[in-house]
Amino acid sequence: MGLNKNASSNKRLRARAFASFGVLFSFLVTAFAGIVLYLRPEGSLAAWARWNVFGVDKKGWEGIHTLFIIIFIFFVFLHLYLNWKILVNYVRKKASESLHAKREFSIALLLVVLFLVAAVARWQPFWEIMDLRSAIKAGKYAVKTAPPVANAEELPLEDLCARINIPAGEAASKLEAAGFKAEDLKTTLAKLAQKYDTSPEKLYRIISTP
């Protein structure tokens, strides 16, 4: 019986360790992906500049962030389930021992409410974080040359050239001289950029430079 109890206890300890490490690792990945996505430009601009971090594009980071939020929530609930009695007893003990826990609880709650109200009411300087996000989203730090029209990278080369008043043959010649040969004038900057592992923005600068 003693051996069975020890074995059962070891299993519980391993489960708690598993949950704790799961919370830690999934939180780190979620937090990092959140920071990366905060720094990303708006969707079409991300495609235009071929924005990526560590070779992972915008959609990839969105997938990582979403998946690891789910994993993080799972591990948090597992951690709470495995440690619920311990947590409840600890809180009750500390609350009865002194006022410090109540003060810490009140201060933490007050800060959370303050940030929540600041976000809803758009108070400064808190809202500067969102103002910075708006600038990043608009491509201020990732895009050097803005696209001439929406989804310019998806337009056939001849259509794009017609919109920017550049002869399509001249644009194709400029690209070929720079080492980017377009098979025909129906191809798009997006396809050409993918073929040569570059960005549509770089190819557009080549054809638009006098």
Which features characterize this protein?
two-stranded antiparallel sheet; 9 helices; 70% helix; 2 domains; 210 residues; mainly alpha; 2% strand
Quick one: how many beta strands?
2
How much helix is in the residues? over 70%
Mean pLDDT: 86
Ends distance: 86 Å
Strand content: under 5%
Number of domains: 2
Cα shape: elongated
Biggest beta sheet summary: 2 strands, antiparallel
What is the CA-based Rg, rounded?
27 Å
| Spatial order of the strands forming the largest sheet | 1-2
Would you write up a description of this structure?
- By secondary structure, this protein is an all-alpha fold.
- The protein has two domains: 2-137, no CATH class; 152-208, no CATH class.
- It is 70% helix and 2% strand.
- The chain is built from nine helices and two strands.
- The protein has helices at residues 2-38, 43-48, 58-97, 100-121, 128-137, 157-163, 168-177, 189-195, 200-208, and strands at 52-53, 56-57.
- Strand 1 (52-53) and strand 2 (56-57) form a beta hairpin.
Write the layout of secondary structure elements.
Blueprint (H helix, E strand, L loop, with lengths): L1 H37 L4 H6 L3 E2 L2 E2 H40 L2 H22 L6 H10 L19 H7 L4 H10 L11 H7 L4 H9 L2
Antiparallel strand pairs: 1-2
Helix pairs in contact: 1-3, 6-7, 7-9, 8-9
Short description:
By secondary structure, this protein is mainly alpha-helical. It has helices at residues 2-38, 43-48, 58-97, 100-121, 128-137, 157-163, 168-177, 189-195, 200-208, and strands at residues 52-53, 56-57. It has a two-stranded antiparallel sheet with strand order 1-2.
